[in-house]
Amino acid sequence: MSAVPADYQPRADLLAGRTVLITGAGDGIGRAVAEACAAHGATVVLLGRTVRKLERVYDAIVDAGHPEPAIYPMDLLGAAPTHHEELAQRVDSELGRLDGLLHNAGILGPMTAIERYDPDQWARVFQVNVHAAFLLSRACLPLMRRTGDASMVFTSSGVGRHGRAYWGAYACSKFAIEGLSQVLADEVQNEGRVRSNCISPGPVRTAMRAAAFPGEDPQRLLTPREVVIPYLYLLGPDSRGLNGASVDAQSR
Ligand code: NAP
Known about the structure:
The chain is of the alpha/beta class. The chain has helices spanning 28-39, 51-63, 81-95, 119-147, 168-188, 207-212, 228-235, and strands spanning 19-23, 43-48, 70-73, 100-103, 150-155, 194-200, 246-248.
């Protein structure tokens, strides 16, 4: 389903004065969305586990003359609830607001049959893909509610809507993310201060896609930069009123 207007083009200052936190901002889709948010005026908090990659994104944003971002190294696999709460407090004390939160970080895990799936690997995929998104949402909601027009965006996948053999914990984690987004959307509906939606990026030329489809020609896929517009729509003020939707980035 696409709730993004087919001809949507974000205005240059769409996110001016706003703060957007993006998980998994060092690579792939997260990096492209972080750079696009900064290009549209946002102060971006770059969360990821590899500092070197986050620094590259920081440099690209600063070199382009966009608002200086903040780097927040954090491994979502080991992060406890208190780490997420500390992050929300730091954003509040240093930046004063949080208008957008993109839960983008994810891991694929093994591609194998359920009966052969290693339980520890299963738990790791759920920790990064689902539990971290729950913990970060929980920690950031009070801060986001304060702005009065904040947007939470969760990252789904085609296999989070229709199960497919050998996609194991990854597929199940994306079903869970669709559920988390819907439950939260229902809880915040009446307040109208925070909205919660899902986005499924579709096939995109990234390291994760290459790991899942090693025989595929990556040149046939859209690049991360080519899919950022629906993300900007969901994260910015133009999607105000949209809540509980699950959007396909490539079906505008
Ligand atoms: P990617 O290139 O592999 O990037 C994933 C990002 O998540 C990386 O920056 C990675 O950090 C970060 N990350 C992984 N584990 C982490 C952890 N424990 N703590 C903090 N950060 C962590 O993947 P992508 O293709 O851009 O995927 C982005 C999102 O889109 C994911 O949720 C994925 O499931 C979803 N998706 C992608 C596709 C596709 O075709 N690409 C299709 C459907 C859905 P490092 O770089 O430091 O490892």
